[in-house]
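User: Show me a protein chain along with its predicted structure.
Assistant: Here is one chain, sequence first, then structure tokens.
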Amino acid sequence: MRLRRLLPASGASAAAAREVPGRMRSEVPRERLRFSSNLTMPPERRRRMKLDRRTGATPKRKPGTRPDWKAGAGPGRPPQKPAPSSQRKPPARPSAAAAAIAVAAAEEERRLRQRNRLTLEEDKPAVERCLEELVFGDVENDEDALLRRLRGPRVQGHEDSGDSEVENEAKGNFPPQKKPVWVDEDDEDEEMVDMMNNRFRKDMMKNASESKLSKDNLKKRLKEEFQHAMGGVPAWAETTKRKTSSDDESEEDEDDLLQRTGNFISTSTSLPRGILKMKNCQHANAERPTVARISSVQFHPGAQIVMVAGLDNAVSLFQVDGKTNPKIQSIYLERFPIFKACFSANGEEVLATSNHSKVLYVYDMLAGKLIPVHQVRGLKEKIVRSFEVSPDGSFLLINGIAGYLHLLAMKTKELIGSMKINGRVAASTFSSDSKKVYASSGDGEVYVWDVNSRKCLNRFVDEGSLYGLSIATSRNGQYVACGSNCGVVNIYNQDSCLQETNPKPIKAIMNLVTGVTSLTFNPTTEILAIASEKMKEAVRLVHLPSCTVFSNFPVVKRRIFLMFIPWIFLQEVDTLPWGMKKARP
């Protein structure tokens, strides 16, 4: 059996591999080995062996190499000692030929790597290859350039900081913000916003051609409207300003508060006290002003309609829009100066009485008919002036003379029964549930009657009152307000008025100096309006439940004075009408 020795493909390559130092051997590519049947000795070693035989010296071997049996070394002989380190020859430096071989090997390795990459890319679909070119670019010839681009340039700081080198290196490794690789075509399509069918956007149109705007143009328009309303860009909306100091923790907390959204402050549903926000609207009867005194003003219980009646024998209805308030209709009553006019509870009828007549006029708004009620069977009153309508629309209460209160059915206008108090009836009103009647007498006493049985439930003296003029109850059934001739308004709790013979008022309002002739609660029981007809500008608004007066009402204007009229709040909106009279020059 013949032994075959593994040799490199060429002798020159093997010689170059022996001469290349250890640090460069790893860079030389490993070439394919083949079996060779030529066992001849290389020429260099053959010359060295001949020289040793002539001189009789033993050839020297490098440490770690296999012993040469032909040189006389065998297993039975003692191993030869290696030469001392001082006698060892230093390794030879790489020559120009070795460097050329290393370059050639590196080029061969790059060529093999490129061939392998092309082989792998043949199996990829075309879409994947296109995406890689978009993301990574054309890196066919230089992969190191791709690595440098992905790593990104390091941003050198201009200011010295106390951070460590590791932290600075970590900060510099963040890649810069890149542009998007592709843009979706659907994002470029501008969506149009309709400006005509929205009442808020309609006011922002500059001309008829702007019936539709893109979202970007609408955003610019909203920004312009905001800056126009604010008088410029507010300080909190400026994004260019940045705080230079971060030592103050309070400033940092404030910045954090302004940069987040949320319900930090909840809105209150109740009316605040102190200052009342008001808006001056167009006169209700601007299309039909009158020179006579206005005696009654009331809003319709279910529509934006206001009724104005006065001593000019006319009842006028106006549509309330706050701008023009167009007139709807005027009903003229011949030789009938109106003392009081009022809507029914359902708003289908208008009732009116006069100063010197016992006739009660009823105007049917649906049929458009005026129905006079000349005589009520069982009613012996010569003059019918003051009356009240129950909140549920079932009863009509007429204040008679000699202390009588007459209860009538609202539908048939027939007398149900009468109630008698001591003294003269100054004012009366129903409770919120229409089951009780409160009557204020001329001697300062208040009577509480049951409507069904027509019996007196309680009787008490209004504290500090010598002569009662007005009385009112709140819609929620909590308060009773009594006005006297001395300008004092006592606010009571309804429960105490029903149970105690000498109830104490919650608060006494003393902002008027003349007799309080009118009292009215608003529908939400947050405002109590008090007024006197005996003095100009004698009207006040009281906040409930604090029982404090709004300081900014009434608003006094030059050459304009407020005059009292019996009024009532709008049912759904807190709108308050009052009369005005121009002063003489």
